[in-house]
Design goal:
heterodimer, A: alpha+beta, MutS, DNA mismatch repair protein, domain I, Dna Ligase, domain 1, four-stranded antiparallel sheet, 15 helices, 13 strands, B: alpha+beta, eight-stranded antiparallel sheet, 7 helices, elongated
Chain lengths: 369, 385
């Protein structure tokens, strides 16, 4: 078997995040059942709740009014998403001390690929432990972490010792771990699929492993192929880093300095062509927020000239070059052009009645077979 | 009104089914027949729902179409040789036959066993019937608040707001229009959870308070019906039904059983930024920029600065559009995103030359109104950029 170096993935999951933040900010809530969610009088639903409330049966997506009935002492705090976003950012700055390869799943969950992290002798276990300590110390909430060779297993592992726990699945432990794993633990296996598996006599992943790719495909459709890998603990999905670019640019250093304006302008078409190539390699979710040119004179001093907004237009670049020439004519050794970028991730439509929407969707989920 | 199908007395009435006979001029029949048939759904689980109910009583013909939620009844005077009776026949086929006959044709109807015989000139058709006793009827009497209103005024209340109704939302109470009665005022409200439209009419005739939700299909049918109505229409708002009597046509709809959201709390009360623009200019600019917005999300970026509104859109193909519109505005700059379709639909529903935008920050809803006609108010939630 070919040995590809094993990856080290950490899945970090904050323990009842919203509720934990609220308890942190209001110590009088400590030890009491606390939920974050909508007004019970307005068909609000529970977004999350702490472990005290979970003991009484309170769950996420439950109608707030119902939660109050089964747990009359429950304190329902109105969500403050701006605050949670700030706390989440703070946690991410801690992540960044260890790696840039961070894939956030939500405000309170992320995958980290620490395969190349040089700290702690590259021990993912010790990195995860350090990370948990730093979040506890600096942010004031607890997080659980799972360490494994891939995202699928890391996510299962973070749930294994929750709350405030760490669980590690080493590459050599994968086979034993996955074999004994109940099929319900596979991400994407709900009650219906699990029932179907039970009927086929498969209660654990080891049982699923006895089924061929074809059989899995027959029983579980398009999910079959993925299932074949997952029940063996295999998952090669990379950790997607969604760091966004702030700009894109190209520049050329010339063998001979460009002494005159018409020389400056003459290199523009080639630069523009290169810039277009760079742009097509970017994903689609960017908006041009400004254009700039950059020059370096023969004395090695640099200058940029830019204009806000607009489109990547030859004429605009030409005007920028002319303005720079007017400001300081002379021979240059480098010319670059670039675009300031702005995120244009699909904008999210905001709701007039978010609580009604959450309640209706929760209801719909609950009534689905 | 369709007769009930409950009591033992019904059977005696049904004995008339065998003999119904009447004739009518095509022009007199066609329009009301088409209106009634428009309620009938093409695909039906219950066969009789594909039919129209025809009833002849005295010198009057009644035609009824229903989808169990909505019922339209047309009453027509008929002369000549008339025999009372009732039956049901396939709605579409009856419409198609009457439509295709020549103008001013005299059409004769007669029940022949289990068939309806239709004759006109040298044309002859027999249609399959189903017993009138199988035809369902909505509640016979609708009691509640009664008021009269000009059809144009009621239609305006509907047409200025209907475009904001939800379609097949899980929040079923949004798939319709709220009619809110207050003494001296009738208000309609429609919202799909992203935008909201509200329109008021002052109406002395209203004495009561009530809030009812008319389902989407009923709203559309009613608007169409009102377009043809003259004089005044009578509106009866009951607990479970709304009835509108418009001349010879009676419209009855079940109501949506649900609580409409407290819409008042999403209508912005304070306004940080007041922008006045020319409606047509803004509409044109938006519709041009919309061409290059993301086809699915329809997002545009609006940059407000003193005296100008810059509108930008781009799509996944990296194509971009930009427009600048002169507006009447002094104050701090603002950047805010919108679904361009929502803005365009509002501007299309308005009629005046000017449009007023009231904006808060980039996460707050925008209020759109016609400064010369404030009975209609529009609220649009932004998109988070």
């Amino acid at each position: 078997m070919a040995t590809t170096p094993s990856r080290k993935i950490i899945h970090v999951d904050c323990d009842c995040f919203y509720a934990a933040v609220e308890v942190r900010d209001n110590p009088s809530l400590r030890g009491r059942p606390v939920a974050v969610g909508g007004d019970p009088g307005r068909r609000g639903v529970i977004a999350t709740c702490n472990y005290v409330a979970r003991r009484d049966g309170v769950r996420s997506a439950m109608a707030s009014a119902h939660a109050l009935r089964i747990c009359p002492d429950l304190i329902i705090v109105k969500p403050d998403f701006d605050k949670y976003r700030r706390v989440s950012e703070q946690i991410h700055t801690i992540f960044k001390r260890f790696t840039d390869r961070i894939e956030p799943l939500s405000l309170d969950e992320a995958f980290l690929d620490v395969s190349d992290c040089e700290q702690f002798q590259n021990s993912a276990t010790r990195i995860a432990e350090a990370l948990r300590q730093q979040v506890r110390g600096e942010v004031g909430i607890t997080v659980s972490a799972g360490v494994a060779p891939n995202k699928f297993l890391a996510k299962i592992a973070s749930d294994w010792r929750k709350p405030d726990g760490l669980f590690v699945i080493r590459p050599e432990q994968v086979n034993d771990f996955i074999g004994a794993l109940p099929v319900e633990k596979i991400f994407g296996v709900g009650r219906v699929t699990a029932d179907k598996m039970h009927q086929l006599g498969a209660r654990h992943c080891a049982d699923l492993q006895t089924l061929s790719r074809l059989e899995l495909g027959q029983h579980f459709g398009s999910f079959g192929e993925r299932l074949w890998h997952l029940c063996r603990g295999e998952d090669d999905r990379p950790v997607h880093n969604n760091r966004r670019r702030k700009s894109v640019s190209v520049e050329r250093t010339f063998e001979e300095n460009l002494p005159a304006l018409h020389h400056w302008l003459a290199v523009l078409p080639a630069l523009e062509e290169a810039l277009t190539r760079r742009l097509t390699n970017l994903d689609n979710h960017y908006l041009v927020n400004g254009l700039y040119i950059k020059v370096r004179y023969e004395d090695f001093t640099s200058a940029t000239c830019e204009t806000p907004g607009g489109m990547a237009d030859r004429e605009v670049f030409e005007n920028l070059i002319r303005s720079q020439w007017q400001r300081r004519p002379g021979a240059i050794r480098l010319l670059g052009i670039g675009l300031r970028l702005k995120d244009a991730l699909p904008a999210r439509q905001q709701d007039l009645f978010p609580e009604e929407k959450r309640a209706a969707l929760a209801l719909q989920r609950a009534s689905r077979p | 009104m369709p007769s009930g199908n409950k009591s033992g007395q019904t059977n005696k009435n049904r004995s008339r089914e065998g003999i119904m006979k009447f004739s009518i001029n095509r022009e007199q029949l066609l329009k009301p027949l088409q209106q009634v048939a428009s309620v009938v759904e093409r695909r039906q689980t219950l066969p009789v729902l594909s039919n129209v109910l025809l009833e002849v009583s005295g010198d009057r013909l009644s035609m009824t179409g229903t989808d169990l939620e909505l019922e339209l009844v047309a009453h027509l005077a008929i002369g000549g040789e008339v025999r009372e009776g009732e039956t049901t026949v396939p709605a579409r086929k009856l419409v198609d036959i009457c439509k295709s006959l020549p103008a001013e044709a005299d059409i004769r109807f007669e029940i022949d066993g289990e068939r309806l015989l239709i004759r006109s000139g040298r044309s002859r058709f027999t249609l399959a019937t189903l017993p009138a006793s199988e035809f369902p009827n909505l509640e016979e009497k609708t009691e509640g608040s009664v008021f009269a209103i000009a059809p144009g005024a009621l239609r305006q209340l509907i047409d200025r707001t209907a475009f904001s109704m939800a379609q097949q939302d899980v929040r079923y109470y949004l798939n319709g229009m709220l009619f809110e009665l207050r003494p001296g005022r009738l208000r309609t409200v429609a919202t799909d959870g992203h935008r909201l439209a509200m329109c008021d009419a002052e109406l002395e005739a209203i004495k009561d308070q009530a809030q009812v939700i008319l389902p989407r299909k009923g709203v559309m049918e009613l608007s169409r019906l009102l377009g043809d109505a003259g004089g005044e229409v009578e509106v009866i708002v009951g607990k479970n039904h709304v009835r509108v009597v418009a001349g010879d046509i009676t419209f009855t709809s079940k109501l949506v059983d649900g609580k409409f959201p407290e819409y008042d709390r999403v209508i912005p009360k304070k306004c940080d930024r007041l922008v006045n623009a020319d409606r047509e200019t803004l509409k044109q600019a938006l519709s041009r920029v919309a061409i290059l917005s993301n086809e699915k999300y329809r997002g545009i970026r609006v940059q407000l600065a003193e005296g100008s509104l810059r509108i930008q859109a781009n799509n996944p193909e990296q194509e971009e559009a930009e427009e600048e519109v002169s507006v009447d505005y002094t104050g701090a700059a603002l950047e805010i995103g919108f679904n361009v379709s929502y803005l365009l639909e509002v501007l299309n529903a308005m009629h005046g030359d000017a449009v007023e935008l009231q904006l808060g920050d980039s996460n707050s809803s925008a209020l759109v109104a016609d400064p010369a006609a404030r009975q209609a108010t529009y609220v649009v939630m932004p998109m988070r950029l």
